[in-house]
Structure formats: structure tokens, C-alpha cells
What does this fold into?
Amino acid sequence: MSRGIDTIVLGGSGYVAGELLRLISAHPDLELKAAISGSQADQTLESVFPQLHASFEGHRFQPIDSIVRLVEEATRPVAVFSAAAHGASAALVNEVLEAAKGDDGVHVVDMSADFRYTSAEAYEAVYGQPHGAPDLLPRFTCALPEHLPEDRPRHVGHPGCFATALLLVIVPLLKLGMVEPDLYAVGITGSTGSGGSPKSTTHHPLRHSNLFSYKPLAHRHVPEVTALAERASGVRPAVHFVPHSGPFARGIHVTVQGTLRTELTRADIAAEIDAFYAEAPFVRVVDGEPRMKDIVGSNYAQLGVASDGKTFAVMSVIDNLTKGAAGGAVQWMNRLLGLPETTGLTLTGAGWV
It folds into this structure.
């Protein structure tokens, strides 16, 4: 049997990293060379992610100072994923690419916010801190793979989880000229979207059987969504977004509403969006309203449409850890490596989570 593609995971101990490692364990072409973690160095992967014991038994997290050695030792091509936090990821990615010395065989997909903007100034305006590797920004492309179907960039910054759910709706509506660019959106996300460090918004007694908004009309994904939607559609939207924390662990449900430019029925809108995503294997337009339980645990997204002829509502459901992060990153990496985009990602939703 041939050896799989050497795969390195940076920032390997959070929820997104755990989901990424799960996907790597089932991927027929990726083979984990190392998961790197400053906080868990030398601990076994299964001590942090017990659910992965059957795939990575005895495999230990490597320290950050092993990055250069691991990149130099890896057989080309090399798949590098960063699941590190924003602000920390750029420095780690910079170390990887310096060790690669311009080697075309090293590909990076970053899941933090560090490579979602085209300029350091735009990043700093949103995150309030200097960018960790501004010289690398021109080498990265940020988009959903569905919105750059013919492109095969060198390195990718994956959009955020809320951004993914919103962009899947907003881009076709704008690009097809169906709607006015003034858009109103409500989203609900699971507690895994808040990261692994316990806080008041993720503590079980406060999150369970509860629903509350946070950062209404001021969420940091809005500038990202605005820029990426304009880049993909040619139209700059005004996105008015109110996110909510939901009483579940994983999944996102968003609803985007606005005014139609001409009178269109639900069937009209659904047919246009369905045609737009005809070559996108992970996006499906459904009859009725999409439900999170149908996609949680998978890389699939489902969209549902409503219209009264003058205004519209389009609903989008994704798994925040999969399509919104690790799964979307693997989807991109498949393309960067010249593999079929669906490789290792066709498992359906778990259903009864």
C-alpha cells in the first residue's frame, strides 16, 4: 500500500482541530505526520480527544519548536492545516513557509481569521491587533470553494463558520441580480463555535435550554462577509446581522431576508440558486425548511427558500465544525493537492445527535 500524503496540523488541541483529525483519520489520501500544540505537547491525542483513540492510539502532540524539522522531513507534497487561534496562526504558518523555502509542494489551509483579509490594515481594523505575518497575505486566497470553482490557489484562508453559512446564501442572490443589496440576517450557532475554553456563554447550566443574542449588528464576521461577497458577486452588500448562541453543541442555522428586485416566487428563487450550485456537490436546495439534524457531522449544506413575491427569506444550515471549518478546509486541500474535492468528505449527517 502506498503511503498517504504527509499532513501536519498546527494548533491541534481545540474543537476545530479535533474535527479535522477525525476527518484526516477517515481520509484515504492524508496521513497524519504530526499534530502540533504548545499547550498539549507530548500528551497523547486520545488524552485530549478520546473519541479518536482507535485512529491515533499512542500518537503524541509535538511541540511548536518541532515545526521546522517536521516540514523539512516531510515527503512532498505536504498538507498543512492551521487550527490555531487568530493572532497566533500567522506566526506558525510563517514558520512553516520559511522552512519550506518556497517549495511548491507545501500547501497551507488556515482556519483562523489571519488570512481572510487582503491587507493587514483590514485585519487590524476588525481584530484590533497587528497582523502576525503581513508579507504572506498576497500568497493566500480566501473564499468558499463553491465560489471559486475553477481556481487552484497555492494557499487558502478559510472563511469563518457564520461567514460560510451567510455567503452560501448571499453570493448567488447578489450575483444573479435577484435581490437588493440591503440584507438582514439572523444566525444561531452551537456552543462549539465559542472555542474550548469555558466561559459564561458556554457553561452548560447557562447555555442549556437557553437562547440569546450577542454582538447584534456588530459581529466581526460581517466585514469578512461583506468583502468576500463583493469579491465573489461583484456587488457590495450591506449586511445587518444578529447572531445568537443556541442550546446545542454543533451546527449553524441562518436566515437571510431582503427585498427582491423583481417579483419572484419561491420556486423561481430556488431554481436559480439550485442551478448556481449545480456543480457544487456539498450544497443542496431543499423543499421546505432545512434542518440542522440532517447535516450535523457532515460537510453538506442545505438551503431553503421562502418568498411572498416582493421579499424573500433564504435559510442555510451547516455544521460549524465541518463545512464551516475543518470540512471546508479539507475540501480546499483536496483541490490544492489535485484530488477530487469530495475525497474523504461524503459521509452523511449523523441524524440523531
